[in-house]
């Protein structure tokens, strides 16, 4: 592994960006956080002397170039509303043009399992066909194809790191966040069913150190890699452990595919979840042995420990709300 220059996190204010920033801070490395508005960036990173805060307009090529100027590596975490996935390919295409013009050397896309479609075999290795049957999967596939096609252009090296669903302390966009909030407050937890099918989750704070390693490992570029969790667990078991920590019996409201369709008549997000519900009914489990062979053992938090940390954070947040 070689020493590397400054890293920029585009779309930094989300949970994944904060995990990667924490790893860069731990390594004593300066980094840039880039987002559309300054306030959430200040809130998340203003305390860190290693962090440089920059705003951008991803619709403006000059703004993209300015945000990327002086960076060696860009880590792309830019999200779009769940009902606007068609924005993913043009957004990454504009960003790639800007980072190439700025002379960036490395580009990492944090990706998902959506481009695979249904798992033909588990666990899924990097050789599995990418044949998405959903619109969201097709948009994610187009996005990562643009990233991979840019490898070798204008001195740019690219890679895609594919993650399963994630969870962790106070991560609102996690499928499991409602379980931890429910356990902490004694309320019913709203979850997307089915809840008894094994599912893979990754503890998001484990992701940052791996990405930090990839930024200084030149031989990983030019392809996609998997980063897996620690096996599978059912949502019911997560709820059992979380509510046990609270000294309570689990209380769940489960929204299956039929209920999601009904809720989708009134809630656009619920409507969008129907298309991806196959991932809840048909497990897709990632195999990350290829990455492990290249960079060595990867530290992973057990479900038991991750659930405890997530519950503790939810309880602290609930206490803080109550104290106001």
TrEMBL record:
InterPro entries: Epimerase_deHydtase, NAD(P)-bd_dom_sf, NAD(P)-dependent_oxidoreduct. Residues 10-209 form the NAD-dependent epimerase/dehydratase domain. Coiled coil: none annotated. PANTHER family: NAD(P)-BINDING DOMAIN-CONTAINING PROTEIN-RELATED, PROTEIN YEEZ. It holds the Pfam family Epimerase. This is NAD-dependent epimerase/dehydratase domain-containing protein. Transmembrane segments: none annotated. It comes from the Bacteria.
């Amino acid at each position: 592994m070689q020493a590397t220059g400054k890293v920029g996190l585009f779309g930094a204010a989300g949970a994944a960006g904060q995990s990667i920033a924490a790893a860069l801070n731990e390594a004593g490395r300066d980094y840039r956080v880039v987002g559309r508005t300054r306030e959430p960036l200040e809130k998340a990173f203003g305390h860190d002397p290693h962090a440089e805060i920059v705003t951008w307009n991803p619709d403006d090529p000059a703004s993209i170039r300015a945000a990327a100027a002086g960076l060696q590596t860009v880590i792309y975490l830019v999200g779009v509303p769940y009902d606007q996935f068609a924005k993913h390919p043009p957004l990454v295409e504009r960003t790639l043009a800007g980072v190439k013009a700025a002379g960036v050397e490395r580009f990492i896309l944090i990706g998902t399992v959506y481009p695979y479609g249904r798992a033909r075999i588990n666990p899924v290795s990097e050789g599995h066909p990418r044949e998405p049957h959903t619109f969201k999967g097709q948009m994610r596939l187009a996005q990562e194809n643009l990233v991979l096609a840019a490898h070798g252009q204008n001195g740019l090296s690219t890679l895609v790191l594919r993650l399963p669903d994630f969870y962790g302390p106070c991560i609102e966009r996690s499928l499991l966040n409602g379980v931890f909030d429910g356990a902490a407050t004694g309320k019913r937890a709203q979850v997307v069913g089915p809840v008894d099918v094994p599912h893979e989750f990754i503890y998001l704070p484990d992701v940052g150190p791996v990405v930090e390693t990839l930024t200084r490992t030149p031989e990983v570029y030019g392809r996609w890699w998997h980063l897996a969790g620690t096996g599978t667990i059912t949502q019911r078991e997560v709820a059992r452990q979380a509510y046990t920590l609270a000294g309570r019996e689990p209380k769940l409201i489960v929204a299956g595919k039929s209920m999601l369709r009904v809720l989708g008549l009134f809630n656009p997000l619920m409507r969008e979840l129907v298309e991806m519900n196959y991932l809840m009914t048909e497990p897709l489990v990632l195999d990350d042995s290829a990455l492990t062979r290249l960079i060595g053992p990867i530290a992973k938090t057990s479900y038991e420990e991750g659930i405890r940390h997530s519950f503790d954070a939810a309880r602290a947040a609930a206490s803080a709300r109550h104290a106001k």
